Each structure stands twice: as C-alpha cells, then as structure tokens.
Amino acid sequence: MKWAAYCHVNVPEQLLRDLLPGPVTLVLQRSDGLNKDLNPFTSLVGVRIPNHAFIRELAQACPGPLALTSANVSSQASTLTVSEFQDLWPQLSLVVDGGPIGDTQSPECRLGSTVVDLSVSGKYTIIRPGCALGPTVEILKQKYGLTLEPS
Q1: What is the pLDDT of residues 51-85, one digit of tens each?
Q2: Model's pTM, two decimal places?
Q3: DSSP state of 104
C-alpha cells in the first residue's frame, strides 16, 4: 500500500504487516495528499485492509482510496451479508455482493473491526474493542512495546 499518500506512518512497517490485512482499523495522522473532504473535521484517518479477497481485489482495481462505511445503522450489530441490510438499499447508489464477510453464526464477527489509534509515537489508544482486541493488544504491547494511552 502507498501509505505515505494517505497518512503519516510512525510505526514499523512490520507492525502494519502483523495487523493488516485483518479485522483491524488503524487510525493515523492524515497526509496532505488525502482529499480533505473525506474527513474534514479531524487530522486523523482510519486505514483498514480487510482479509477478504473480493474487497481487496476491488480496492486494487481503484486508482485511489475507497471511502467506506459499515452497512448498518450506528450502534447496531455489523452486517455480514448484503441481505442483512436490505432495508438500506434504497438509500445506496450501489450494492455489490461479494459474499459473506465473516462467519454469520459467530457473534464475534458482528463486533466490527478493532479500531486503534496509532497517531502518537510509542502509544496506542483503543477506540473500539471490536472482534480482534486480544491479538491486537498482544502485538502492540508484547512485540512492539507500545504503551496504552487512555481514551
């Protein structure tokens, strides 16, 4: 990924490889090259590379970043199939069915990604625990020695 085009990375490249692709969203300082209309009220940007072949192929086919949101109403469980958010279809320009994005029988898959702020060097803040909290914290603390910064 061309990280520098979208955000300032202040962690080792291997840390990025350890967490992505996967169910983790990394929050970093946005770069000047990222369209300011994508998140106009913050200097931060969330970066996620899902471990889902269809989404990754779609992203690779696009010349720039994809600005996406979850297909569910805020604070409700994450949807895993397009039929689960059928009530939102009339409000959407496009719906693409690339298959389920997780185990539909697993409650953990409905927690959404673990969102972690890495914008401060040497520290991390958990913004949303999500479905990969344990493994993510283990990597950040044990492998890279980052310190938890309370939110």
Answers
A1: 888 888 888 898 877 777 666 666 677 788 888 88
A2: 0.85
A3: T
